[in-house]
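A quick aside before the break. I want you to see a complete sequence-to-structure record at least once, exactly as it would be stored in a machine-readable document. Don't worry about memorizing anything.
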Amino acid sequence: MPDSLYFNKEHQMIRKAVREFVNKEINPHVDAWEEQKIAPLHKLFKKMGDLGFLGIRYDPKHGGQGLDYWYDLVFAEEIGRIDAAGISMAIAVQTHMATPAINQFGSDYLKETYLTKAISGDMVSAIAVTEPGAGSDVSALATTAKKEGDHYVLNGSKTYITNGTQADFLTLLARTSDDPGYHSFSLFVVPTDLPGFSVSKKLDKMGMQSSDTAELFFDDMKIPVENMIGQEGEGFIYQMQQFQHERFVTLPLVYESSRKIIDMTLDHIRERVVFGKPLVKRQVLRHRLADWLTEIECLKCLTYHIVSMKMAGLDVTKEVSMGKLVAGRRVPADVRRPGFHVGDAHIAGISGLPPGIHRRRCRRSHVGDHRTHGGLLIRFIQVETHNT
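That is the input. The structure line, written in tokens, reads:
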């Protein structure tokens, strides 16, 4: 897809700056971070904040760049080229998952105290929604925040929290009412230096090792009332809107990373000779490569269409859900298959196969199971059919 169809010189300047940063400040270190099972996010985010990378679309009065969705896409595509999925996800949490609700619904106090520092890289953020008993079914959350005077008392736990061991604050969804329905939840900014907060454990994972993922615990933790985002009881609605930013940023991360996996696989099967011929000469492998590349390009085209809609001020909930469905189901399923074409080298992670092919394989379940979006899309289809 020719960049000139969508991007001007200013867009390409941002692309060049982010790519140079990734190649100089991130990719040379991912081997060590993967081995250590953590990346120095405060140091890394401060460097990114100083260059203006953490607030591409946010208002300049809060330290952002105030740029449009095409610049945002350029940034997301370039962090999708990072050689470890855990690092790109950690950055996306900071820019697209933990801060959009503060920007859209937060008070001036919350923006000045937390959003500005997240954009500058002086604070690391995390999004705390998932619980041991509630994942894609957000309405099943059990963590409670009970109002007592000028505080809310927080009790409960959250799990699978990216950036969880290093976060300075959490954007956290909790139940503030026992009433049924979606207006029983509120969204808070929760500083992690307050009494009552603890990291229960840092979770070990099959992939994305450089991303610190944690289980968090809250025991009678007092949160100032001014740390509520927006109005009490509207947190579920705010978080559903924030999820759209999360799901959108996943799309370029998937297609850029997937393309790089295929490129690495292609380089390997060009050199790998079996029964007197390079593997790339095998027709079945060539057909599979064509299938993978086509699916990736389709996802990329859908993403560009979504950006065009966003620029026009249109609702993209349906299209973003379609993209998440494709990214979560088809592309990762196909991208796992290149491993089958490199044999034991893929399993052992040796024999000259680029290590990035292993570190890029775990983007499947970002922002919930992709199958959840199938049910969401059916609702859109039913409404559209009813209205025709």
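Two observations worth writing down. The chain has three domains: 3-124, 126-232, 237-387. The longest helix spans residues 235-271. We'll return to this after the break.
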